[in-house]
Specification:
This protein is an alpha+beta fold and about 525 residues long. The strands form eight sheets. Strands 22, 23, 24, 27, 28, 29, 30, 31, 32 and 33 form a ten-stranded mixed beta sheet that branches.
């Protein structure tokens, strides 16, 4: 009993001296040792709430058990403190690293956001296509600041905005694939084949009864196809092809059948032709294509109205007769020995040539001719080129007279050409002297006979020369007419209004008179 009382008193004394917390700690020593950190944290909280109790703990005496607890707790506390800063440092180090990563990743995230905001895909429509360009469009709207880059074989087009673009500088007759990119994202694709290019130097060369088509070779082409008025005419692997048209008899016959009274530029496809050439490779692919128009070398046409009835006998195809009524109209294509020459289809279906005397008819220029005269009285018919003139003279087989020169007067264009025989071929002359210097003697303007006094067509030659006659200078006289200069009172040359002769501008007339010898061939058509 005494022992119990003594224990109670000692406990009470300890309670008074150490306080309730230490008493509790002493009483629960084993539990506190087990929980360590929890006790220390509770002790610190208690110190913060009750300063006096804390002071009592610091200033009071400690038992070995308390020392062990204090030593263990601080050690574990130190470990906790060391671990916490380490964890804190790790957190601090990790946080900036995470922040830095966030800062570095942010721009990439913005780029991705922009790409996602840009147009996702384009529905591309191919528009106009030429030999060197392709136009494309799309309905989708690009974002503000967004641009497209179009890539294709051989190049690219950057900085494209809006809803359309045109890619230029392409190769003719070539298959292209156009890829559209917004940034690095491919947003669309289109395919197109450029149109065929032009056949280089494709041209018509008007000649006698024919139109010669010429061109330069197209790289890769193995065949050239020619269409006349839309229908296939022929093909060749060379660089020329001759279209055989026929003579002007066909044209005059059509006129005399009542077709073409008003100038249309085409009489059933026999007056003017449309030519299309296609250059193709071995697989039949069209590499180049061109179109031109042309016709044979033409002459003047005369509209004749008969003053009275007449019976005429043909000059070709046997002696066939036709009866012409008063007031009847026919078209003539030439004049010789005082008679107009025309062609007419007889009852048997054959076209024959007829002549009629000038006194029987009232003659005017055909509407085909008057249509090419402008308001200033000038002939608007393009002159035949040097190439055409030489082609015509050689195809026509014009023979030279004693002289090696030849003069060709074309009535339709009202132009004159001077040739010289070179290696068996007629070639245009380049003139020097008598006021001329290196002048190409082609397409020289002239005025030939008017409809009522036409210049004789066909072949003749210069028989004599006269310095002047009837007030007109520099005569080169033939059997039917003369080639001479002009008087000051006469209007300018270039329209058929003379009294049958061929008037020349004075500089050309001087050179012809002095340089072209007698017995030179003169050919009128």
């Amino acid at each position: 009993m005494r022992k119990r009382i003594l224990a109670i008193l000692m406990a009470f004394a300890l309670f008074v001296v150490m306080g309730p917390v230490e008493m509790f700690a002493f009483a629960t020593d084993d539990e506190e040792a087990a929980e360590g950190t929890k006790v220390e944290m509770q002790s610190e909280e208690a110190d913060a709430e009750n300063g006096e109790a804390g002071d009592a703990v610091v200033e009071g005496e400690t038992t070995p058990v308390e020392e062990a607890v204090e030593e263990a707790a601080p050690a574990e506390g130190e470990a906790v403190e060391e671990a916490a800063p380490a964890e804190g440092e790790a957190a601090e180090e990790a946080a900036p690293a995470e922040g830095e990563a966030a800062e570095e990743a942010a721009p990439a995230e913005e780029e991705v956001t922009l790409e996602q905001a840009n147009v996702a895909s384009l529905t591309i429509t191919v528009g106009a296509v030429t030999a060197s360009s392709v136009q494309m469009s799309w309905a989708e709207t690009l974002d503000a600041g967004e641009t497209l880059t179009i890539k294709y074989a051989g190049g690219e087009l950057a900085g494209v905005t809006g809803n359309s673009c045109t890619v230029s500088g392409l190769t003719a007759a070539t298959d292209y694939t156009f890829e559209f990119f917004s940034g690095s994202n491919k947003v669309g694709q289109a395919k197109a084949t450029t149109a065929p290019g032009q056949v280089p130097a494709f041209r018509k060369v008007s000649s006698y009864k024919t139109v010669v088509l010429k061109w330069n070779a197209v790289p890769g082409a193995s065949k050239y196809e020619i269409k006349v008025n839309g229908a296939l005419y022929g093909s060749t692997s060379g660089t020329s092809l001759t279209h055989k048209v026929g003579s002007e008899k066909d044209i005059i016959n059509l006129l005399n059948k009542g077709k073409g009274e008003k100038y249309s530029g085409n009489l059933d496809g026999k007056d003017r032709f449309t030519y299309t050439i296609s250059a193709k490779d071995a697989n039949g692919k069209v590499l180049a294509e061109s179109t031109t128009t042309g016709d044979i070398v033409k002459t003047l046409y005369y509209k004749l109205t008969f003053k009275g009835g007449a019976t005429l006998t043909s000059h070709s195809g046997g002696k066939k007769k036709i009866n012409i009524k008063k007031g009847a109209v026919v078209y003539a294509r030439g004049f010789t020995n005082g008679k107009y020459i025309f062609d007419y289809q007889c009852k048997d279906g054959k076209v024959r040539t007829f002549h009629t005397m000038k006194i029987r008819v009232k003659a005017k220029l055909s509407p085909h001719i008057t249509a090419i005269k402008n308001k200033r009285g000038e002939n608007t018919q393009p002159a035949y080129t040097v190439e055409e003139a030489e082609q015509y003279a050689n195809d026509r087989g014009i023979k030279k007279a004693t002289s090696k020169y030849m003069i060709w007067v074309n009535l339709f264009s009202q132009k004159e050409y001077i040739f010289k025989k070179v290696s068996g071929k007629w070639r245009i002359v380049t003139a020097n002297g008598y006021g001329l210097k290196n002048k190409v003697m082609a397409a020289l303007p002239v005025s030939t006979g008017k409809a009522s006094m036409p210049t004789a067509t066909g072949s003749t030659k210069i028989n004599r020369k006269l310095k002047s006659q009837h007030g007109t200078p520099l005569w080169n006289v033939t059997k039917y007419f003369s080639v001479h200069g002009v008087q000051k009172r006469w209007p300018k040359v270039g329209w058929p209004e003379s009294g049958a002769c061929a008037r020349n501008q004075m500089p050309n007339a001087k050179w012809i008179y002095n340089k072209i010898p007698k017995y030179t061939r003169v050919f009128v058509h």
